[in-house]
Specification:
The complex is a heterodimer.
Chain A (H helix, E strand, L loop, with lengths): L3 H10 L7 H14 L7 H35 L11 H13 L5 H4 L4 H20 E2 L2 E2 L1 H25 L3 H11 L11 H17 L1 H8 L2 H6 L4 H23 L5 H13 L3 H25 L8 H19 L6
Antiparallel strand pairs in A: 1-2
Helix pairs in contact in A: 1-3, 1-14, 2-3, 3-9, 3-10, 3-12, 3-13, 3-14, 4-6, 4-7, 4-8, 4-12, 6-7, 6-12, 9-12, 13-14, 13-15, 14-15
Chain B lengths: L3 H32 L6 E2 L5 E2 L8 E3 L2 H9 L6 E5 L13 E2 L6 H6 L4 E5 L7 H7 L3 E5 L4 H15 L2 H22 L7 E5 L14 H7 L3 E2 L13 H7 L3 E4 L8 H6 L7 H4 L3 E3 L2 H4 L6 H12 L1 H8 L1
Helix pairs in contact in B: 5-6, 6-12, 7-12, 12-13
C-alpha cells in the first residue's frame, strides 16, 4: 500500500509529453481540492482527463486480472493457468474484431459498441467451454482446460480471418492496437464498471480463500474438509467470465499479468490465499500502472500498447524471480 | 570433458557461425545476379539488373503505387491487370484484378504479361524469384519518396517505350510544385498542422517522411515531423500540447468532424476543432508517395491559405 502513492504519482508525472513536475501537481491539487474541472488548459486536460483515469484504470485492471489468475490457477491446479485460459481473451478479441471491422449483422451492430461486443464475445466463449466441460459427475478440470485451449484457437482464427478479410486498413490498425492492450481510450466513465468488476472479484474471492487453499490439494481432500467443490468451481468460472470479460473489454487483451503476478506474490508471501489474493491485487495493479506509465513515456509524442510493455518488462523480471527464489506452487 | 554451460556456449557460437555463413551465401548470390546483367539491363530498386526479353506490350502492376507510376508514364493502354487493392485512377477498375496478399501468381500468369511492375516499398523482394522462375520479367520501382517516384516515372517510360509522355508528366509535376511553392512563399508564419491517417487510431507521419515536403509546399508546418520515426502514433497528450491550427487526415468523403471528439474527448478544445479547421484528403493522393501528392498538397494549401489563392485568381 505504501508503494501506491509514489507509483500513482509517477503515472501522473510522466507521459508522452514532458510537463514540469511542479505545474503538474499544482494543477492536480487545484483541480482535486477546489473541484475546478472547468479549466481547459492542456496541462489540466492531460493530468486530469488522460493520465489520472488511465492510471486508475490500469490499477484496477491489473489487480482484477491478477486475482482471476490466482483463482484460475487454483481451479485447474495448474501453474500455467491465467485469466485467459478459458478462451475469454480470444472471445473478447473475436467479438471486438467482428464488430469493428463490420462483420456483424447490421441489426446487432447497431445495438452494441466495441466494449459490449468484446464482452459478449468473452461470455459466449466461456459459456461454450463451460458447457463442454460440464458432466453429470461435475466439472471436469482437464476437459475445461482442453476446451479452453481449443476455444481460444477457434476464436483466434476468427479474429485472424476477420483481420485478413478486412478491406479497411485504418480500422484494421485500430483493432490490432486494441488487441495489444491499451488504456489510451479510457475515460472517467469507464472507471465505475472496471472498478466494480475488480472489486466484486476481490470480495468474492476473499470470501472463498479457504476453498481456494483446499482446491489446490485436490477435489477429494477439499470435499473431506467440507468444501462444496462443484459449487465453488461454478462460482469461479462465472466470476472469471464476468471480471475478465469486463476488464478485457475496457483495456484490450493485456497478457502475462494474470500469469506472472500470482506466482511472484506466492514466491514472496507463500501459498495462503488470504494473503495471495490481496497481495496479487495490489502487485498486479501497481505493476500495470508502472507498465502503462512506461508505455506512455517510452517514445516522445507516442503511446506504445501496454501489452507489449508487460511482456517485455514483466517476463524477464518473472524469470529472474523464479531463478532466485525457492518457489512452490502448492 | 566440457561442462554443460561450456557445451551450451560452444553450441551457441556454432549456431551463430552457421547463421552468418547462410547470410554470406545470400549476399554473394545478390552480387552475382547484379554482375551478370548485360549493358542493356536496367537496375531496379532492389539492385537487380533486369534485362527485358522483348518489347513490353502487356503490363501487370502488383501495387497501387506502381500502377500510378505506369499511368503517369503514359502506359495505361499497356496495363492488362492490377492488384485488387488498386482504386486509382478510375480507369484501372475496369481491368482484371487479382489478390496480392497472398500473391495470386496463377491469375497473373493467366494475363500473359511481358512485364510485372512492383513497388519496392510494399512488395516482397522474394516474389522476384518466383516471377523469374515463371519466365516473367519483373521490375521493382522505387516509391520511397516523391523524388524517387519522379525518377521511377522516367524509368517506367523507358521500360514501356513511352519516354516522351513520361518526361512531359515529370516536367508538369515539377512545374506544379514550383508554382505552389511560389504561391505559399508569401506565408510568413507557417501554421502548425497535423495529419492523421484515421480518426480513431492517430497514426501520422514523422521525421524522414515524404509527407513533410507536401506540407512544406502547402505553406504548412507538419508538427509531427519532429517525432523521430516516419510513422508515429500520436498520443492524445501530444496533441493537446501541440494544439495544431489545422488537422488534415484521410477520414473519407462523408467525414463528420464530431467523430474526432467521440474518439478523443479531450481534443474538444483544440484550436483546429474549435475553428472547424479539420479537412479530409483522398487517401490515394497522400498515403503513398506518388504523382497524386502534388494534388494533395494543393488541396491542403487551398484549405489553409484560401486568401493567397484568391489573390492569384484575381
Amino acid at each position: 500500500m505504501v508503494a501506491l502513492l509514489p507509483v500513482l504519482s509517477a503515472a501522473i508525472a510522466f507521459g508522452s509529453v514532458s510537463l514540469p513536475l511542479s505545474t503538474t501537481f499544482r494543477v492536480l491539487s487545484r483541480a482535486l481540492f477546489a473541484l475546478d474541472q472547468t479549466d481547459s488548459t492542456p496541462i489540466l486536460q492531460i493530468v486530469l482527463n488522460l493520465r489520472l483515469p488511465q492510471a486508475l484504470a490500469a490499477f484496477v485492471v491489473g489487480g482484477g486480472l491478477s486475482i482471476i489468475g490466482v483463482a484460475m490457477q487454483a481451479l485447474v491446479r495448474n501453474p500455467l493457468a491465467e485469466p485467459y485460459i478459458l478462451g475469454v481473451s480470444s472471445g473478447a478479441s473475436a467479438g471486438a474484431s467482428l464488430f469493428y471491422l463490420g462483420f456483424l449483422p447490421t441489426f446487432i451492430a447497431a445495438q452494441v459498441d466495441i466494449t459490449l461486443a468484446a464482452f459478449i464475445g468473452a461470455l459466449l466463449s466461456i459459456t461454450l467451454v463451460y458447457l463442454v466441460a460440464r458432466s453429470r459427475d461435475g466439472l471436469s478440470v482437464s476437459r475445461l482446460l482442453l476446451a479452453g485451449v481449443a476455444m481460444a484457437s477457434l476464436m483466434a482464427a476468427i479474429s485472424s480471418f476477420v483481420l485478413f478479410a478486412s478491406p479497411d486498413l485504418n480500422r484494421m490498425r485500430a483493432v490490432l492496437f486494441w488487441l495489444m492492450g491499451s488504456f489510451e481510450h479510457v475515460t472517467w466513465s469507464d472507471l465505475p464498471l472496471a472498478t466494480g468488476a475488480a472489486m466484486i472479484g476481490l470480495v468474492v474471492l476473499m470470501s472463498l480463500s479457504r476453498s481456494l487453499d483446499a482446491l489446490l490439494i485436490g477435489d477429494e481432500p477439499a470435499k473431506s474438509l467440507g468444501i462444496r467443490v462443484e459449487s465453488v468451481k461454478k462460482v469461479l468460472i462465472v466470476l472469471s467470465a464476468l471480471v475478465t470479460g469486463t476488464l478485457v473489454s475496457i483495456s484490450g487483451a493485456i497478457g502475462f499479468i494474470g500469469l506472472i503476478i500470482p506466482h511472484a506474490v506466492r514466491s514472496l508471501l507463500g501459498v495462503n490465499h488470504r494473503y495471495v489474493l490481496p497481495g496479487s491485487f495490489l502487485a498486479g495493479g501497481l505493476f500495470l500502472v508502472l507498465a502503462d506509465t512506461l508505455a506512455r513515456s517510452l517514445l516522445p509524442g507516442q503511446q506504445v500498447p501496454v501489452g507489449i510493455v508487460t511482456a517485455i518488462a514483466g517476463v524477464p523480471f518473472f524469470l529472474f524471480l523464479l531463478r532466485r527464489t525457492d518457489y512452490q506452487f502448492k | 570433458m566440457l561442462g554443460f554451460r561450456a557445451r551450451l556456449f560452444v553450441g551457441f557460437i556454432l549456431s551463430l557461425l552457421l547463421i552468418s555463413c547462410g547470410n554470406q551465401d545470400r549476399r554473394a548470390g545478390a552480387v552475382s545476379t547484379s554482375s551478370s546483367g548485360s549493358e542493356q539491363g536496367i537496375v531496379d530498386a532492389l539492385g537487380r539488373t533486369v534485362q527485358l526479353h522483348g518489347p513490353v506490350e502487356r503490363v501487370v502492376t502488383i501495387a497501387p503505387g506502381a500502377t500510378e507510376i505506369v499511368v503517369a508514364a503514359g502506359g495505361l493502354h499497356k496495363l492488362v491487370g492490377v492488384s485488387n487493392v488498386d482504386s486509382s485512377p478510375a480507369a484501372v477498375l475496369e481491368l482484371p484484378s487479382f489478390s496480392v496478399l497472398p500473391m495470386d501468381f496463377e491469375s497473373i500468369l493467366a494475363l500473359e504479361p511481358d512485364l510485372v511492375l512492383a513497388s519496392s516499398q510494399v512488395n516482397d523482394p522474394k516474389h522476384a524469384r518466383v516471377f523469374e522462375s515463371l519466365g516473367i520479367d519483373v521490375f521493382y520501382l522505387d516509391g520511397s519518396d516523391w523524388e524517387a517516384v519522379f525518377e521511377s516515372i522516367k524509368v517506367a517510360g523507358d521500360l514501356l517505350s513511352t519516354r516522351e509522355v513520361a518526361e512531359a508528366t515529370r516536367d508538369s509535376l515539377s512545374n506544379q510544385i514550383s508554382e505552389l511553392k511560389s504561391i505559399t512563399s508569401a506565408v510568413t508564419m507557417r501554421p502548425r498542422s497535423v495529419f492523421l491517417i484515421s480518426e480513431v487510431t492517430s497514426y501520422s507521419f514523422g521525421e524522414g517522411s515524404y509527407v513533410i515536403d507536401l506540407f512544406d509546399w502547402a505553406g504548412l508546418d507538419l508538427a509531427s515531423s519532429e517525432i523521430g520515426t516516419p510513422s508515429p502514433k500520436l498520443s492524445d497528450e501530444w496533441m493537446l500540447v501541440e494544439d495544431p491550427t489545422y488537422i488534415f487526415g484521410t477520414f473519407g468523403d462523408d467525414f463528420d468532424p464530431s467523430l474526432l471528439i467521440k474518439h478523443h474527448p479531450t481534443w474538444k478544445n483544440l484550436k483546429a476543432i474549435q475553428s472547424e479547421n479539420v479537412f479530409s484528403i483522398p487517401h490515394d493522393l497522400i498515403l503513398r508517395p506518388g504523382p497524386g501528392n502534388v494534388q494533395a498538397s494543393y488541396i491542403m494549401a487551398q484549405k489553409a491559405h484560401s486568401d493567397l489563392f484568391q489573390q492569384v485568381g484575381n
